[in-house]
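Design request, tokens follow.
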């Protein structure tokens, strides 16, 4: 499998190159030249595999330059019960992403049992091991520049801390993460981890990361790499749990299943789209947003209009406070027939803040052929969802998963299983959980007192040149 750019300006590249390269040289995102397709017989065979074996069978199709035996060993080392347990039911830990039945045809898939209590660990742990392997084989080093609204940053830092040849510079929105998220990142004292609080929202952080990546000379000189979902390695690892969730709930292989996905940067649900392209019988992909509802607007109207500061909100599902959904680019590339020139012109309009509107045909195909649906939650909805799930099912869900619960209820069909993807644990968002339920959520014993640890971070204005100077001085 080779990789091209969504904007049409990259000669086909191998997996390891795009893994280390991050953003494509033309500013687009790397994407597989074609999607392999699993037929029903192949799906039957996959349906009984362990998480690690399933991950290998899927990911191996996308890796053209790592020997299969090495890839298999890397994956086996990543997806273990020890890495994905985190104090929750150890008997279920071997399933890696256990699925709980809430009621008939309504399920919750746990994705937050990794070291940092959010779904980002599902891909990031593998990315850490892949980076280490590829860098050692190429004899190279990498300086990761990333952006986080709270969860990617800690997942990346826990996956990369202490790894030889890897530095991490992670930008986060100053004062906008939960105290737990902040402490998780800023308490790390490893010499290869650099936290930078930027005065602005996540969108500004991500724009700065992309600007650094778009400066070819700076990128080459400082060996800049990416861990956000602009990195294809992240997305392909996330595809696996859709297969696992599907096999857990489908009565027979081939039956339709719906997934509901709390969304912000569109990486998670983009992985669902790719799973569907690979032949997994997903009927609907329901995109759940918070008050930053740019994606809900897109799926309801066909108009994609990232917001300015006057319409970007700090919400109680803060990791989804995103109005420029980076990965939407990969889906729209597929939707418009993989025309790189057209995609590049649409994203020029996004970059000028004009946005774009889909043609009538593409708007219809997005629902009919690609199965997308969407729904938005407010703070009041979120609290009501957390309370309802606690009362009806005796389960605590975090504020982001709560946005998913509301959207799943809005789009449920009694005859089709709906899987809600859990994206974080309640412990990361104590204030909202206390507001909803009146009590503190549980947290794993080793994280008690996290917020009391000494914290280390730098601050920067939302200024690309300041970031370049920072990177040049530190790595
Ligand atoms: C807890 C949580 N839920 C949902 C999301 C949204 O996921 P995505 O950006 O992949 O759409 C994020 C971050 O992105 C997150 O951290
Ligand atoms: N919510 C994310 C934002 C970045 O998303 P990514 O999947 O593109 O890394 C976060 O928690 O940082």
């Amino acid at each position: 499998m080779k990789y091209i750019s969504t904007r049409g300006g990259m000669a086909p590249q191998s997996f390891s190159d795009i893994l280390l390269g991050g953003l494509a040289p033309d500013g687009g995102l790397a994407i597989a030249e074609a999607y392999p397709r699993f037929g029903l017989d192949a799906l039957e065979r996959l349906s009984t595999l362990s998480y690690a074996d399933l991950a290998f069978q899927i990911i191996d199709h996308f890796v053209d330059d790592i020997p299969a035996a090495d890839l298999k060993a890397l994956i086996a080392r990543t997806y273990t019960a020890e890495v994905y347990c985190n104090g929750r039911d150890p008997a279920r830990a071997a399933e890696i992403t256990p699925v709980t039945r809430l009621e008939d045809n309504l399920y919750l898939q746990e994705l937050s049992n990794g070291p940092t209590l959010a779904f980002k660990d599902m891909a990031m742990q593998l990315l850490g091991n892949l980076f280490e392997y590829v860098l050692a084989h190429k004899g190279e080093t990498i300086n990761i520049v990333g952006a986080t609204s709270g969860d990617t940053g800690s997942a990346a830092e826990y996956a990369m801390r202490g790894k030889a040849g890897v530095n991490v510079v992670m930008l986060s929105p100053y004062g906008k993460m939960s105290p737990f998220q902040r402490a998780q990142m800023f308490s790390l004292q490893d010499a290869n981890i650099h936290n930078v609080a930027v005065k602005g929202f996540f969108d500004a952080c991500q724009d700065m990361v992309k600007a650094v990546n778009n400066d070819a000379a700076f990128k080459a000189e400082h060996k800049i790499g990416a861990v956000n979902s602009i990195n294809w390695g992240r997305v392909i690892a996330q595809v696996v749990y859709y297969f696992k969730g599907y096999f857990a709930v489908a009565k027979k292989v081939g039956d339709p299943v719906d997934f509901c996905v709390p969304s912000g940067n569109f990486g998670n649900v983009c992985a669902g789209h790719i799973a569907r392209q690979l032949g997994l019988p997903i009927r609907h992909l329901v995109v759940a947003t918070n008050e930053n509802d740019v994606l809900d607007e897109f799926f309801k109207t066909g108009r994609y209009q990232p917001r300015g500061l006057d319409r970007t909100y700090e919400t109680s599902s803060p990791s989804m406070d995103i109005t420029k959904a980076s990965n939407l680019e990969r889906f729209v590339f597929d939707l418009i027939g993989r025309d790189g020139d057209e995609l590049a012109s649409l994203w020029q309009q996004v970059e000028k803040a004009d946005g774009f509107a889909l043609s009538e045909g593409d708007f219809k195909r997005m629902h009919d052929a690609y199965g997308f649906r969407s729904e938005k939650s407010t703070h009041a909805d979120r609290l009501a969802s957390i309370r309802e799930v606690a009362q009806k099912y005796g389960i605590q869900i975090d504020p982001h998963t709560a946005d998913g619960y509301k959207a799943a209820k809005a789009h449920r069909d009694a005859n089709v299983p709906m899987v809600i993807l859990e994206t974080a644990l309640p412990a990361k968002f104590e204030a909202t959980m206390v507001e909803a339920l009146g009590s503190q959520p549980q947290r794993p014993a080793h994280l008690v007192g996290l917020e009391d640890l000494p914290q280390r971070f730098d601050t920067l204005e939302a200024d690309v040149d300041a970031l370049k100077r920072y990177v040049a001085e530190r790595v």
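Comment from the thread starter after seeing the answer: thanks! The first helix runs from residue 15 to 21.
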